[in-house]
Records
---
Amino acid sequence: MPKPRTSFILLLCHMFILRLAFTISGIRKDVGLKDKRICKTTVQGRYLLSDDWGHVCDALSVDPVSRCCSGKGAQFDCHGCNLDSQCCNSYEFCVSCCQDPAHTHKELALSVKIAKPSTAGTYSSVFDFCAGRCRHNSESVVHENAYLSDFHHCFSIPSNSSGTPGDHVETRLAGINVIVGRQGESCDSVCKLNGQSCVPNKLLALNQCEIVIIFLLLISIYNILVTYSIQKYMRCKGACLASIGADQPAEVVDDAPRHLNPGACLYTRTPSMLACDGLHRHTKRLCPCA
C-alpha cells in the first residue's frame, strides 16, 4: 500500500499532466483561425449592391456575417457598360467594372481628389474611388438637370487629376456635338442654329490645345461647318496660344489683323471667363452642343 506522501505526489503529477493536456488542446484549437473578412459594399441601390471584391449581387445573396456577395457571379462584371467611354447604365456594375485593375490603375485612383477644393482629401482605396466616381457627376449631365444618355455612371479618371491634359476627354464629351461656328458667332447662336443648346460645363473640356486643334470640314452644298470627332484637328497654322477672352476656345480667322495672329488657335488660362455667349468678330468658336 503506497504511503500517503507518495499518493499525494502521484495525484499532483496526474493533475499537472491533465492541465498540460487541456492547455495544448486549447492551443491547437486556435491554430489556423483567421478573422473573417468584412466587405465594403455599395448602399444606394434598390435591388443590387457591389462589394469590394468586384462582385455584384442582390441583398438576399449577401453573406450575413462578412457582408460579401457569394462570389457566384463574375468578378469585375461589366454588364451594361461601354468600355470605350467607360460608362455604364447601372451604378453597381459600374463599381464592379471599375475595380478591374485593367480599367483602373490603383496609383492614379488613389491620387484623385474627392472634391474640387485643394484641401480635399484623396480616396483611401480603389473601391472608394469607384463608388464615388460612378455616382452621377457633372460630366454626365447636360443643362445641369438631364442626363446625356442612359450610360451616366462613368468611372474614368477625371482629366484634371494626374495624367496628361488630354486624357479621357472623349469620355467627358460623350453625347456632346462639337461644332465649329462661323466667324463672329457665339456658341449660343452656333448651337441654336443646329437645334441644340450650348453646354457651358463642357467648354472647359475643349479649352486645351490638344482638343482645340480639330479639322474644319466644309460641306459646300449647304455651306455648313461641321466636325466629325475630337480626334480631328483645326488647322491652327499660326500655333496654339494662350489668350484672354470669353470667345475661347477658338480659331483666329485668316483675314484678321496681323497683331491678332491670323490662323492661330486660342485657349484661355482663366477658365472662369469661358461663356456660351462670348464672341469676337475675328474668331470662330469651338462649341459643345446638346
Note: The mean pLDDT is 76.
---
Amino acid sequence: MGNTLQKLGQNHPESIQEHELPVTELPDESQPFTCEICIEPMLLPNKKFKNQNRCVHPFCIDCMVKYITVKLEDNVGEIPCPSLNCNQFLDPISCRDLVGPQLFVKWSDVLCESSVLTLAQCYCPNRNCSVLILDECGENAKRSQCPYCKRNFCFQCKLPWHAGFQCQESRELRDRNDVVFGVLAELNKWKRCPQCRHFVQLIEGCKIVKCRCGANFCYNCGRRVYQHWCGCDNASRFCIGVFQWFSGIFVILAILFLIWDFHSTKRSKN
C-alpha cells in the first residue's frame, strides 16, 4: 500500500503541488540575534527582551533596563518602544522581574504622579492634616470635606469653609463673629443680595424678592432678575413655557382677527 502511494506521488507531482498550502515562516526565537541598541550579537536567546509580544524588535535585556532607567529619571511613565516608527509602549507588569523591585516602584510612582497631574488637587488647609486631596468627580468643586480629618474646606480658594462668604472676600476682614454669623446664615439658608451683598431672609411669599437697595433677585438661586420670574427650577420653567405658549396663541389669534377684519371691510365696500 505504501509503495502504491509513493508511485502515485511520483507519477503525478503536479497534483500534489496544487493542494499544498503556503507555509509562513515564523521567526525562530531560539536563534541568536543582534541588539539594535548596542549592536552586539547575542548568542543566548534568553537575553532577548520581549514586550509581552506587543512588538518583536531585537533588543537585549541589559539595554532595555538602562533605557527604562533613563526614561524614569526624566519622569516619563508611559515609556515607548525604542524602535523607530513603533507606536507600542512597554508594559510595566511584564517588565517587573527584569527591572527589579526598586525600579518597578519608581515606575509605578511616576505613573501615579502623571495621572494625578491631570486632576484638580489641593492640600487640606488644616495644619494638623495637610493631605493631598483630588477632585475625581471632574466638576467645579467648592465646599468639600477632607476624607482624613473630616473638616470642611473650600476647594476653590484652598481655605477652611467660609460659610456665607465668597472666596474673593479677604480673609482678614472676617473675624470670629463674622464666621459665626456666616454659619448661622448658611444653616437658615439666608441669601445675599447680588448688588449690595446684604443678607435677606424670606419667610413666605414669592421667591422673587426686592432688597432694600432696590435690586430684584431670585431667593432660590441668588441671581439678579429684571422680571418677576426666574427659570432656575422646573416649576418656573413650566410657568414661563405656559406664558410663552399663551402669548403665541394670542399673537396668532390677533393676526387672524386682523386678516378677517380686513377681508370683511373689503367685502362691505364691494
Note: The CA atoms of residues 28 and 45 lie 10 Å apart.
---
Amino acid sequence: MDFNSLNMKQFVKDAGSALSRVVQLTEEKLGTSEKTELDAHFESLAGRSDVTKLWTEKIVGDTAAVLTPNPGNRVEDFLFEKIEKKRPSRLSNLEYLGLDMTEAGNAFGPGTTYGTALIKVGQYEQKLGAAEREFVNSAHVSFVQPLQKFLEGEMKTIVKERSLLESKRLDLDSCKNRVRKARSLLGTQSNAERDLRIAQSEFDRQAEITKLLLEGVQTSHTSHLRCLHEFVEAQVNYYANCHKIMQDLKNELSKDRPASPMVRVNSEEFDLSSTSIIDLGPAESNA
C-alpha cells in the first residue's frame, strides 16, 4: 500500500469522525441525544481554569498598559520580544523632558538664574526617567513575563486538551447511540460495542490527562502570588526612589530660590508668595 493510499484512508476516516461529531452535537442541541456529563469535581476545576485564564489575560493587559502607556510602543515591544527575544531600549518621556530642559538651560545661559534652574531640574528629571525605566523592566520581568508565559504555555495546553476531550466525548456518545441502534439489527451489535469500548477507553484516558492539567492551575496560582509580591516590592522601591530624587531636587533649588517680593501694609512687610496679605479684612486694609 503506497503512501498516498494511506493518506486518503486517514482523510476519509477523519472526515467521517468529524461528521459524526457534528451530528452528535446537533442531536444534543435538539434534545434527541444524551450527553455524557463529567463529574462535579472536574467541572469545578474547569470553571476555575476558565476564570484564571480570563482574569490573568486582563491583569497582563492592564499591567502592560500601566508600564507602557503608549499603544504603539506596546505593539513594538511585543514584536521585538517575538522576533528578537528582547524588548527594545528607548528613553522614557521623563528622560526626554530632562534632556530638553538641560539643553534649554544651556541655551538661556548656565550663568543665569533660570538657566541654572532648568539644568538642575533637567538632570533630576533624567534621574526620574531612569528610575521609571528600571522599574518598568523589573516589573515586566518579575510579573508580566511569568503570567504571559503561563498563558502561552500551560493555559494554551489546557485549552487544547479540553478541546480534544470534547471531541472524545462526542465520539463516545456517538458510539453509544450506534450501540442502541445496533441492538435492533442482527450482526452489527458486536462491531458497535467494540467501537464503544475503544471510545470509552480513549475518553477516560483523555479525561484523566485533562484533569491533571486542571489541577496544576492551583500550583500556578501559588507561583503567580510570588510574582505579585515581587511586583509590589518593585513599586515600593520605585516610588521611594522617586521621592528621594524629588526631595534632593527641592533642596537643590531652595539654595538658589530668589527672594519673594515684599509689600508694606501698616508698617508691616508681607511676602506676596504667602496668603497673609489676602487674609487681611477690608477694615484692616484701610486702617
Note: Residues 37-256 form a domain with the Substrate Binding Domain Of Dnak; Chain:A; Domain 2 fold (CATH 1.20.1270.60).
---
Amino acid sequence: MALFHLFLLITILMVIIPSSINAYWPPSPGYRPSSKFRSMSFYNGYRNLWGPQHQSVDQNALTIWLDSTTGSGFKSVKPFRSGYFGASIKLQPGYTAGVITAFYLSNSEAHPGQHDEVDIEFLGTTFGKPYTLQTNVYIRGSGDGKIIGREMKFHLWFDPTRNFHHYAILWSPKELIFLVDDVPIRRYLRKSAATFPLRPMWVYGSIWDASSWATEDGKYKADYRYQPFVARFTNFKAGGCSAYSPVWCRPVSASPYRSGGLTRQQNWAMRWVQSHHLVYDYCRDNKRDHSLTPECWG
C-alpha cells in the first residue's frame, strides 16, 4: 500500500510540475534567429549620438545612464533597408518610473516630421511592479500632429533586471517580427505600403526621461533621488541589407524558410506569450479610431 501511495504521489508531481512550468515560461520556439548572426563589438556597428559623458564601453558591453542633467543615446554607423537587429539588455531594478530604455529603428533624422520608426521600449515602473515592454510601429507619422502609434505591450515572463536577455527586431519587406530570447512576441505584416515602413532606417538605443507618459500614462514621474538610472547593452547583432547593399541582397528570415514567416512551433510560442503576457493591443482598444489603422481589420 505504501508503494502504491508513493507511485501515486510521483505521478501527481509529474503532472503538476510540468504544467506549472509551462504556465509561466513560453514553449520553445524551435528555430533561433539570433544564432545566425555573430556578435559584434559596440564600436564596430555604433557610435555615440548624444550624452557622451553618460556612456561607457567595457569589453564590448555598453553602459548608458540618465540623471537629472541628461540621458544618452547611440546610433548605428549605417542605415539598413531590412535585417535582424538585436542586443542583450539588462535594466535597473527599483524605482524607474518615467524612464524609457529603448532599442529601435528610425529614420527621424532623414525625414523629420514624417519619419518611420519600429520600437522596443522598456517603460519604467514603481516599486513592486513589473516593467512593461512596449513594441510600436510608426509610418510617416511623427511630428505632424497626427501621430499614429501601433502599440502592443507585454509584461515579461522573467525579471529583466536580474540578467541580460536578448531583444530583437527582424524587418523584411513582408513583415516585422519582435523577439525576446528568440521567442516571437509580435508579428506585424505588410498589408499595404501605407501601413508599413519601407524607407531605410538606422538602429538606435537610448535612455531618457519620458515622465509625461511612460508610467501609467504619466501618473508617476522620474524621481531623481534614485539616480543614476542605468541600462546595460551587450551581444550586439545586426545583419541584413544596408541601404548601400546591391539590389539583389536577400532579406534575412525569422524562420528556416527563406521566404520568411514563422514555423508552427514559433507561432505556438507567440500565441502563448500573447495569451499570458500581453497587456495592451491597439487593435483591441475601442477608444482608438481604427479608420487610421486599417491593418487591424484588413
Note: The helical segments are 2-22, 42-45, 264-276.
